[in-house]
Amino acid sequence: MIRRTGDWERRQRESRRQRSEAWRSVRARPAGLEPDRRRAIRALWRVCPYPAGPSYLGTLLHEIATGRIDPERPPWAGRHTLTPRTTPNPGSFREAFRQIGKCLIGA
To answer: Per the record, which residues fall in region Disordered (predicted)?
Structure first.
């Protein structure tokens, strides 16, 4: 068990090191671009539907470089709107703090 614990810790450390190395390498790619282009890519990355991972950022940068995605007009613009699971204008305290998705007793 002690050996397994040590192996697990080493694997976790190596996994974190590899992931941080991947982030550093992919984040260095836009460094050679002009500032306006970098800003557009950063803004696009904030709203894109991809999961926040280095491989997905690399894919996004590749698609921009090959012309498949235009940072000024992304294919997902306007399709993904945030819909928070809240009561927008509650009329009462009870309505404001109700548990969403839970059945009400006697309802």
So the answer is: 1-25, 69-93
